[in-house]
Write a structure and sequence with these properties.
heterodimer, A: 377 residues, alpha+beta, Immunoglobulin-like, A middle domain of Talin 1, 2 domains, 12 helices, B: 441 residues, 9-stranded antiparallel sheet, 3-stranded mixed sheet, 10 helices, 19% strand, globular
Chain lengths: 377, 441
């Protein structure tokens, strides 16, 4: 990651701010609609709102746990689940104009309709990929992101447990793999700039190695690997776990649109090209290649989700993408060691130059992804 | 990011008129016209060009390029040259920061006198004296036997560290002059930041800047030692449609469009320290100078969709027009766009200059240069902007603007890595005076 941390990924900013789920944003910036859920469905069952940010204030008046889903055809555009009886849950989303159906309370309850009019603040739909198909991709990616965030929190819990037990050898052995889920969804995690800053900052973001404001993976990494490094390992570990859990919680309700996805695939590789080709990311442990491979995996996952459409509309471009990923893989494979990778310092100068070229080439090809899919900011 | 030279509709029109006269003279003579820049903007005349025209050919005269032809920019003035004089920033610059190593106040005084003497000579284009071959030549000779006019300006500024206990100047420190604080996102390399003295050397070409730096250092090495340096440039095209500015930064966007017009009352009120602002008396007619060496991650930027680039900046890349306008000089109407549907709320231009009555006092005069310094250890191009801004108050000016920019999406593509806060000394009016005389005299 770049040293500029407390920043929000520009390519993703618009989407999420308008989505209203970014931290610090008042959630009352969209059109607000109150909806009661029960065994008999939604009240009101027909909703009409202008396009743009929408806050659905969902109150469960039924006797069981309820849910609310917005469907475009068969695809779930957005949803709120596990609403406890008697409680209210706000679903913050943004919708393009069109007709949607809603699942109200449960899949057995009568469905409702949601009409979105106008297009004032809407993101333009893709010119080349059907909106329903895109909605499906988004759902797939949201599922992936949530799973990664949850897995990441679980791995952090294990890592933190080792630290708290004083088993630092185990902690060192877990460090790199603990970071993998985080690195695979880094552009999404960075949307929550406060959590990102607390979890993944490098020392360059602070006044020095002893700055008490420096927390997260890399400060813990330094303590684990550098004899005499300052910092209270227990406090830092607790903080890391709290932030990882917070991230998983926030990501669970984050809507991710297709443009954000497409740009995210490139952002993961930009991160590598810009700030991980020097061994500075995991400088104390030398485990950079594990982080890098996770970035690549996260990027490839997005491409794979888009793959059906790319196969149909841009097979030549898809071939370029696959070749560019392949070029990166070829070099990374040389440094595989068991389930992980060798130390960054093991990379030969020739391979390092080649790897930089391969990542730059991949970034170039990925920069065409949003345009190829007809997606715009 | 940001910056740049000039750019104001009014100025542009004046420039076009004036440059036309010079261009005519130069073109007819088959060489680049030479004029003289006066105190409040370009006052070049065909007569000056005719009388001083010399084979300095450093470029091909063109219809509008002539406004950038070499002139003599007088050293003397109420304000130092290199800020509002010449009215269009020269094409090249060197920013060189020094640590003063002179042992005491007398040494500092001697340093500034010698610096002034040498700046005066070069600014006037005084030919070097005849060479006695048994001595080293008195200057580098890189400009040939006639150093001639090169629109050279050398602007001397002082840093907060000069006011420590070495020279007994503690009580004379300009009120807001301190070491530049670390702003969010800054990754400051101390080897490229701060300093006791800053020289801003500007000229029509890089050779003249290099010549000047070597000549100034040749006589002052015992008094000051280089701390950091940055070479800057911008494209010397004054060719632009009427009402547009002329320079782009290395993100490819117009920059400096909203600068106050050079030489007007607005400019004076925003830039020069007045006698009644509570500053030390010696500082009157000086100006606070904020310098930021801002790396731009240009590869990544070049891979960002155009729509995203434009949303981040708030302008159309091609024309420079604000996203709610048609022409570069159009004033964005934020009151009519409260939700940022045209110009996003976090667009650079909207944060930097909200265009409200309450933020007028925060406007600054930007006069920066692009830099290209090779590539970094990751193999990425090391390019960016040497941002230079002048203002009468750092607090009202740069610091407030920078605070507003702390959340801008552009931050993902840039990284401030050096620079510092300085105070540009008042100008020298007396032909026998020297820079810093009001401080040390």
């Amino acid at each position: 990651m770049p040293a500029v941390r407390p920043r929000v990924l520009a390519s993703l900013l618009a989407a999420v701010l308008i989505g209203g789920t970014a931290p610090g944003l008042a959630q009352d910036t969209g059109t607000q609609v109150q909806v009661n859920l029960s065994e008999t469905g939604c009240d009101p069952s027909t909703i009409t709102v202008p396009a743009g940010p929408i806050v659905l204030q969902l109150t469960n008046l039924g006797g069981d746990v309820g849910e609310f889903e917005i469907l475009k055809g068969d695809f779930v555009v957005d949803e709120a689940e596990n609403i406890v009886p008697g409680f209210r849950s706000d679903l913050v989303t943004r919708l393009d104009s069109g007709e949607y159906t809603t699942i109200c309370y449960s899949t057995q309850s009568p469905r409702g309709t949601l009409s979105v009019t106008g297009s004032a603040a809407s993101r333009a739909p893709s010119a080349v990929v059907d909106a329903g198909v895109l909605a499906g991709y988004q759902t797939d990616y949201e599922t992936y992101v949530r799973a990664q965030a949850t897995d990441g929190a679980a791995r952090v819990a294990t890592f933190v447990a080792a630290i708290k037990a004083g088993d630092l050898d185990t902690a060192r052995s877990l460090y790199a793999t603990t970071r993998v889920p985080w690195e695979s969804i880094e552009p999404i995690a960075e949307l929550f700039s406060d959590v990102d800053h607390a979890i993944d900052s490098r020392v360059e973001d602070f006044s020095g190695v002893d700055d008490p404001a420096w927390t997260g993976f890399h400060r813990i990494e330094r303590i684990l690997w550098v004899p005499g490094a300052s910092g209270d390992l227990g406090v830092l570990a607790d903080g890391l776990l709290a932030n990882a859990n917070d991230l998983a919680s926030r990501v669970s309700t984050l809507p991710i649109d297709a443009y954000t996805m497409a740009q995210g695939a490139g952002s993961l590789i930009e991160e590598v090209a810009q700030s991980k080709m020097t061994g500075e990311e995991d400088r104390y442990s030398g485990t950079d290649l594990v982080s890098i491979a996770a970035n690549v995996a996260g990027s490839r996952r997005i491409v794979d989700i888009f793959r059906p459409s790319l196969t149909a509309i841009a097979p030549d471009y898809l071939a370029q993408l696959d070749a560019a990923f392949g070029a990166v893989d070829t070099i990374l494979e040389r440094y595989r060691a068991g389930d992980g990778y060798q130390s960054f310092s093991a990379i030969t100068p020739t391979d390092l130059t080649a790897l930089r070229g391969a990542f730059a080439g991949l970034a170039d090809v990925l920069s065409q992804l949003a345009g190829t899919l007809g997606l715009t900011a | 990011m940001t910056t740049r030279d000039i750019s104001d509709r009014t100025l542009s029109r004046r420039r076009l008129l004036v440059s036309g006269a010079v261009a005519g003279a130069g073109a007819f003579m088959g060489s680049v016209g030479v004029g003289v820049v006066g105190g409040a903007g370009l006052l070049s005349t065909a007569g000056a060009a005719a009388s001083n025209g010399s084979p300095l050919a450093s470029g091909t005269p063109t219809e509008s390029g002539a406004s950038l032809a070499p002139v003599v920019v007088p050293f003397e003035g109420t304000h130092q040259a290199g800020i509002e004089r010449p009215g269009i920033a020269q094409a090249n610059a060197i920013l060189a920061a020094f640590d003063v190593v002179a042992p005491d106040r007398d040494g500092l005084s001697a340093l500034l006198r010698e610096l002034t003497r040498r700046v005066r000579e070069l600014a006037a284009g005084t030919p070097p004296p005849p060479i006695d071959a048994s001595y080293p030549p008195p200057e580098s000779g890189v400009l040939g036997p006639s150093i001639g006019p090169s629109s050279l300006t050398v602007t001397v500024a002082v840093g907060a560290s000069l006011f420590d206990d070495r020279f007994g100047l503690g009580g004379q420190r300009p009120r807001e002059l301190a070491e530049m604080p670390r702003f969010p996102g800054d990754v400051i390399d101390s080897a490229r930041a701060h300093g006791d003295l800053l020289l801003q050397i500007c000229a029509v070409d890089e050779m003249a800047c290099v010549h000047t730096l070597r000549y100034l250092m040749a006589g002052t090495r015992s008094g000051m030692a280089l701390r950091w340096m940055e070479n800057g440039f911008h494209r010397p095209d004054a060719i632009a449609a009427e009402g547009t500015t002329t320079t782009r930064n290395l993100l490819g966007f117009k920059d400096g469009t909203a600068n106050p017009p050079v030489g007007g009352d607005l400019f004076s009120n925003l830039v020069w320290v007045p006698p009644d602002l509570g500053e030390p008396a010696w500082a009157t007619n000086g100006s606070y100078m904020a310098v930021r060496l801002i790396r731009m991650f240009v590869e990544r930027w070049d891979r960002a969709p155009l729509a995203e680039q434009q949303a981040i900046i708030g302008r159309t890349k091609r024309t420079g027009a604000p996203l709610d306008g048609q022409r570069e000089e159009d004033i964005p109407d934020y009151a009519a766009d409260p939700q940022g549907l045209e110009v996003p709320m976090h667009a650079h231009i909207r944060l930097a200059n909200p265009r409200t009555a309450g933020t007028e006092r925060n406007r600054i005069f930007r006069r920066g240069y692009s830099f290209s310094r090779g590539f970094d250890t990751a193999g990425l191009l090391d390019q960016g902007l040497a941002f230079v801004a002048f203002q009468r108050s750092l607090h009202d000016g740069f610091a407030t603007v920078q605070a507003r920019l702390s959340s801008e999406p552009l931050a993902e593509y840039i990284q401030p890595q050096g620079g510092g806060y300085f105070f540009a000394l008042p100008g020298v009016i007396d032909p026998a005076g020297y820079l810093g005389e009001s401080l040390l005299g």
